[in-house]
Design brief:
Blueprint: H1 2-7, E1 14-15, H2 27-36, E2 40-44, E3 52-53, E4 56-57, E5 64-68, E6 81-85, H3 88-97, H4 106-110, H5 132-141, H6 145-163, E7 169-171, E8 179-180, E9 186-190, H7 193-202, E10 207-209, E11 229-231, H8 237-248
Parallel strand pairs: 1-2, 2-5
Antiparallel strand pairs: 3-4, 3-8, 5-6, 7-9, 9-11, 10-11
């Protein structure tokens, strides 16, 4: 929070906090700090579908909250996104902005009677509409969100137990008691990050870096350090054991010979039975798409 305060000026229009990996930010302090500076909070909730802060779902605390969807998000859908808003006034303007600033879109002009062609252009807008198919898939997936997030929490708890004292790895601190993470990502800080990523790749386990700092990208380079290796939570217990083994025997420790195994997301395509003592998926719980079947 100190870094936010240090960057706030009289010209700051908005603060955009990211609920990184699904871990809710300290919203009370953020809203208080931004309010004192006259800045608006726009919450980036891309990782946080189903997360909660002090008993309330992420997306319900302020005026602007942005979610995004794709096949590997906690709420899997082909694409698109959603905004949750704190006022009808904001909603009316954003509905115009998403259809090129038009006062009414084609559907509205054709609904409830004869089609009328007249409209006004009140804002400089975008073509930013989600397709009906994408929306239908996202709505259908809502039914499974809590069960999927509960399964992710089991997987994260298992990783935290098994990896807590592995030399060369550092886990991010656990989520605060007044918050519920969606566990979109499970990240570790690795002393030999690139070698670890390569070892995982050789063993058929996908990982990624989330994220490089914005000022290291070409677009922002004129305005201007390590990152974490991200592991997508696999569903089956033998996949969990396999990933744990790879991390325990990571290159910083002089690991053994990798074996081939493809660990996917918690997926409907994974049907292995858990071994005794390892987390088991809730009966009937649906899973995001397994990348091998995508």
């Amino acid at each position: 929070m100190e870094s936010v305060r240090a960057r706030l000026t009289s010209g700051t229009g908005a603060v955009i906090p990211l609920h990184y990996g699904g871990r809710p930010c300290d919203l009370d302090e953020l809203y208080e700090t931004a309010g004192e500076a006259g800045a608006t909070i726009v919450e980036d909730c891309a990782h946080a579908a189903g997360a909660a802060y002090k008993g309330r779902r992420i997306g319900s605390h302020g005026s602007f909250h942005a979610f995004s969807f794709n096949a590997v998000k906690n709420l899997p859908a082909p694409g698109g996104g959603a905004l949750t808003l704190g006022s009808d006034e904001h909603g009316a303007r954003l509905r115009r902005l998403r259809v090129l600033g038009l006062s009414s879109d084609t559907f509205t002009r054709a609904r409830g009677g004869p089609y009328t062609w007249e409209y006004d252009v009140r804002d400089l807008g975008l073509r930013a509409t989600m397709s009906d198919v994408e929306a239908a898939v996202a709505l259908a997936q809502l039914e499974y969100l809590d069960a999927d997030n509960a399964r992710r929490a089991e997987v994260v708890a298992h990783y935290r137990r098994e990896l807590a004292s592995v030399p060369g790895l550092r886990l991010l601190r656990d989520v605060e008691p007044d918050r519920t993470s969606s566990n979109h990502l499970f990240c570790v800080l690795a002393e030999e990050r690139d070698r670890l990523v390569e070892r995982l790749r050789e063993a058929g386990v996908d990982s990624s870096v989330h994220y490089r700092r914005n000022d290291t990208y070409e677009l922002f380079a004129s305005r201007g350090r390590g990152a974490a290796a991200e592991l997508r939570s696999p569903a089956a217990a033998d996949d969990l054991d396999h990933v744990v083994h790879l991390l325990v025997e990571h290159p910083g420790r002089g690991g053994g010979r990798p074996c081939r195994r493809r660990a996917g997301l918690p997926g409907r395509g994974l049907r292995r039975e858990p071994r005794p003592g390892l987390p088991r998926a809730a009966p009937g719980a649906a899973r995001p798409l397994d990348r091998r079947r995508a």
